[in-house]
Structures
1.
Amino acid sequence: MFRFALHCILAICLGAMFIVPDADAGKIKLPYKKAGLNKKQAAAHLLERFAFGARPGEVNRVAKMGPEKWLAQQLEGTLPDAQLEKRLKAFPAVAMTTAEIVATHPKNGYLRKEMSKAGILDVEKMKKKEINNKMKAYRKEKGLRTLGQLTNQDLPGQKLVRAVYSENQLREVLTDFWFNHFNVTIRDGAARHFVLSYEQDAIRSNALGQFRTLLGATAKHPAMLHYLDNTQSRAPQQNQQNQRRNRNQQNQTMAADNEMGGEMGGEMASGKKPGQKAAIPKPPPKRQKRGLNENYARELMELHTLGVDGGYTQKDVVEVARALTGWGAFPVGNKSILKNMKRNPQNFVHEGDFLYRRFWHDRKAKVILGETFPAGGGVEEGERVLNMLAKHPSTARFISTKLARRFVSDKPSETLINHLSDTFTKTRGDIKAMMITLAQSPEFWAEAKTRSKLKSPFTLASSALRALEADVKNPRPTLNWITRMGEPLYRYLPPTGFPDYAESWANTGTLVTRMNFGIGLVTGRIGGVVINLPTKGKNNSTNELLKTYSKILLPEQEAKDTLNQVKITVPENAQKKDVQVIALLLGSPEFQYH
């Protein structure tokens, strides 16, 4: 139905205008010939599913290299990326540590407070314009940037640039997949400073590694710890009698955390808008709560590992939450906690941005998924939980189903899911091995002709920019279009992440917007992007234009219906025929699906 709607709108617009855990190419056997495909067709399909689309001439290059060799290189994810590295310099936060990001991008409320302490601001007497000017001058003097420059420019900008220009395409595709699987959002006031580091250090670095490593990296990252509230979770009061000797230390730490919470979340908690007069910043209400918090434990099992039907109970959720008490984020810039750690090192485990507080941990006995955790445990209980979940059969099936849905079909076959589950189990969650199993499956290659996966807005935009070899000088306008098409990057609030099936993107409103994106791109109405058309300025016939651009935009595809529609309805005397042809091909079902 959605394909039919695409054809209808296109016509209107025309009128108006098996298991191998090794990535060695010699050990990868892709059965595309059995599916009736040649090397070029196989290359085109790999570039559609394991990359963000093909660039001009790339199908021929991959076919000449050999699809197996290309896949092996992508599974390693270590190809030189000189052009990408050059473009990433436009986003300063990319090169910063977590601590540097927090220090360089203070919230307005915190900055006003510090400037008031220094006697630079008097918010009671100064007008809003004067306050803003002084804050702007202060940022420039101190080398500070606004939070918006982090969340609205650097964070989404680097994601788009990586998708368009990185040579390690599979790593970027999987980074996008895993980020949605382990979703966090910049709409969470306490998490937003950490989302860039989360994607770079927890997700991208482990996107082609072991699932257990990826799971642990997300579990210990401050973005996740804040987003799903585990950083505030601690043993219930009634379970802390044996920890009273640590009460003074705990109170000092909580006071220090509250001070830091004011820095990180004061504006959000007070309900004040940026630039509005505010009292001393207060931490968000959730950071004032005491006791057990089940949010992360529940999503850990339901969304990250076992799945909603994975065989756990509400009691297991509570027990996992108890095992994870004390797991929190290291409060960047907090001097009090450093003093406490130095005085009482036995009460803490500090690993990068992760901090475990022993005196917040529930040390009573627990039973999780039928396994007993004896009393007296500590930080290792959380690690044991992650180990249990990562090797659980339900996790193998849940992850396999999601990978099959993303890379093969919205409704993957049981046979494929079972093969992937076997690979997950036998390789202990080796992501490379699972991708090889996918690529070696008959189901994957059957999709080369049906092309049933509707591109997400982000994938659609990235593939269009790649196909036209666009020079993205400013990603913001394109990102705005991606939002208009229904995918505001890093702003999806539910922990599920953006859905990955056609129904989530397929509706009449977004369909028209998707068509308009293609028109805007080739007509120069989307700022910050320059495309150089190979036939620009030449007096080519419609047939010649179709031959040129269908090879670029629809490589190795049979698109006779679409091409005939374009040929019939674009007159030979039309102005800017090349622009019309490209815009209509970008809006065709053959380009919208992959």
2.
Amino acid sequence: MKDLSIFNQFAKQGKAIKLRTDGKAVIYTRVSTKEQAENNASLETQLKYCKQLAAKKGLEVSEYFGGTYESAKSDERKEFQKMLNYVKRRSNVGYIIVYSYDRFSRTGANGAYISDQLKKQGIVTISATQEVDTSTSAGSFQQNLYYMFSQFDNELRRDKSVSGMQEKLRKGHWTGAYPFGYTNANPGKGKTPNFVITKEGKLLKQAFIWKANNNMSHVDIAKKLQKKGLNITDKRLSDFFRNPFYCGLIVNSLIPGEIIEGLHPPLVSKDIFLKIHNLLNSGAETRKYSFDDENLPLKTFLKSTTCGTPYTGFIVKKKELYYYKNRRKGSKENRSAKKLHQEFIDLLNTYTLKDKKYVAPLKEIIYDTFVKMNEEGIKETEKLRKEITTVENKLDRLEERYVFEEINRSQYDKFKVKLAAEIKEKQDNLSSHSFDSSNLKKSINIALKYALNLPSLWSSGNIETKRSIQYMLFPDGLGYDFKNKRVQTFRVNSIFASIASINGALSGNKKGNFQKNIENSLLVTSTGFKPVTS
């Protein structure tokens, strides 16, 4: 029998994702802050380019979402969720159009996950300025990288902000809300704060003295303060008595392990503070654990996912076995260090690059993706550097004219101050827009070098190496679900998050099509990424 059409009824159906092709789309636009929404035309620009893309592809826009300010650090956004619910409930909408992928999400892996789940329902997220072919595995990976580096950009901004605060703290300036009992006598943006002790602070000082001299109970001190018009609970008093800020010192989680002499006036002397500290801890356990214990590298790095309490550790000397312990009072969460280390190594395997042959293409794809995303910043950097050079040349010319007596001292001083201020302003702007390609390449090289053998590097390294790897991958530490014996991540280094994305793509692509697509498409070009074709 040559005609087999009668057997068509037995043919297997394909499992390929069926995209919605009805030609309808929605547009989502957003900015991050209220000031941006009110003071610039970004929303109008986004909408313009999104409409142009819809017209180019012949798509009918059925609804518009966003058009306001929503931070993309979280995907729990009102307009964003409203848009997701809309497209999921309508079978004729096949596209979500955004100006760029960071407008859709800046949450890295979570943004990529949402796009993937939408794609499984036939809905594709497309960018007006970063067009990629998500029908191929390489194109989908490229889209995911945009999400990863949006998160990376957030982390860079956060790191710059943190660096600034760390510098202020190390110079003795307190950052953040004023501690109780103090106020700022020199308010205003950009002004150096001038802390002064308030009326409430003077009463709190009396509380310190009562505690130090008479060892009064916190309840009794609270009652005496109440009679003087200051309502403070005994619990808050305990917190105040333990805060070294009140004896003129600064401690902060942004500068762990450091004690800084503050510029603010102390409420009490260091002797009084230490006397109270000794009284408060006279009944405490004397046993101390070494933070640098080679056998417990995850101490304080792990926190309970239930209560947020850090894990400490101890040794059972009779058996010479180490354990991690949740230090929450009354907790019975003890976990063998050997077992917990294996759980951590299993997690490291997720972020370990499986084959050296992926290093070269991955190195290029990560670098060019980041450069592509920061085109505006790079152009602004180049512009500022040229402007600084121009003003510096003017300053040199001014000095020459003064030396050769073409202008007098008064004219020289006047214009020197003006030009120096202009240079300083442009240099400050440059520091906020700067892009160092060599540092980025070094960071990528180091990360990929580590990524080839993370578990063995961590297992064989000393305590410093272990901690370096831990904080390099997971800057905010890790959570530990004691009930399910599972390590959980809070925030992952974006480069390693992209490696995990690759591993996921490869595991679902056993025939190697993903690698073939990367090699054949020459993903890195002189102008960045081009849309990948099958």
3.
Amino acid sequence: MGIRPGQIPIPFRLPPTPISGSAYFPQLDVLLTFTGFHDPFHKGLVEQEELLGPILSLLAARSFSKVILIDTPATREITKQTAFEVGERHGSALTEVIKCDFNDPTDYSQILSTLTAIADKVRTEHESARLFVSTASGTPQMHACWLLITASGKLPATLLQVRPPRFVTKERPQISELDLTSEEFPLIRFRQSSVDKEAEPNSATNDATRRVGIVGEHPELKNVIDSVQMVAPYNTPVMITGESGTGKELFATLTHVLSTRGNQPFVAVNCAALPDTLIESILFGHRRGAFSGATTNQMGKFDAANKGTLFLDEVAELPIQSQGKLLRVLQDGMIEPLGSREPHKVNVRIICATNKDLSKMVVRGEFREDLFFRLNVAEIHLIPLRERRVDIPLLALSILDRLNGSLRRAKQLSVNALNRLQSHNWPGNVRELENVIERSTLLCPKTVIDADDLLFQVAPPKPTTFDFLPEPEEGFSLEAYLKSTRKQIILKALDATKGNQSAAARLLGISPQAVNNFLSDLQRES
């Protein structure tokens, strides 16, 4: 156990001229790190995608005068490859390999004994150097031992944490430093690197967007996020529109998180799933005995969301009667539970969502006009996934990354698979994309999911006009059926054009005189 003195140090690459370290480097920065199974490179979520491992990622972000790689029996070949890549990519840095012979990388006593010996050697050989330790490679036990060695003062080094690029923001850059020897312990410093220099200025919004689970780089998506950021601080109602599966609830959640109510309740209600007879009870609550079966007092969703946000999904499905009561709450903030004669005030911000055109429903009398204008103070429209295809690979890999956390064996997507996903029209949008990837991941036995392995759900064929034709039977009259159909189509055209005969004729592809004759015949028949 421990270090083999005969093998320390093993220089991998030397400076081109024999100049001493103190003369060659005005300030000697020495990095110590174990090597791990993600070094020097590791496979990403895309087939054959080779990503920098933790050590090379760190060296790409900042430079060191010397890199000391600590090798174990399980990482012999990895260390050799890593040392070679460090030499090839960062030739100005000295590379030294320290070989250790402990066989259990989870045994604290072996690791601590080894690191103590290494600390003594490094302190002796690099008295004037600044020492750094990377905790990104190796086992969790190795990371803990690094912490103990540095905190105890045996190795006066600064700990470095390296984050994968997908978790990098301006607030959380690629590298953070933890100096346990500082008088201000714990002193944490963040180093800006090339990865985060291009980060967007509003990191709080970026962080909230990531936590909520919104993924994408399409300009229209960024415009929507900007709109959410602008309306979030106010208490005005927000209407989110878009096709089913575009992520309306995610953006409602983002609006809530970015608002002044972010630490208060967020209550979501699917209006389409509410039974007509229980809508008022669910929204406003009820008192015991208010109706048959009401054996206890029940808090409604408005009370549950008090001081927070109430999200009404599929708001277009509310019956007209319930729409009137919702309007009253929006006007005065007062609710009256069923069976109670004492209304009380609630402080709730309303966010609604629908995949229907409410303005057309207002024209048809299916949605109250006054409620529409009350809810539609700020409208946020989400475009379908097929209109932001550039985001499909990002979304697919994000979904796969989440699913891999619950799989025994991580899966990858081939480039062909990503191309096929990007070319699909996605009538179900992001929700359908999630279903396809989850189904393919669970049912495909291969590690790399190819284009042919993607399991798309076959959509039922859309009905055509001919699917609704009547079945001919005894007494059926073709002439009477065609006459009735002609009448209904012309009436629908006149209704769509608000009685404008010329416009209706253009829609039908007939002459205005034909429409006028039809109306004359209709008047005579009546």
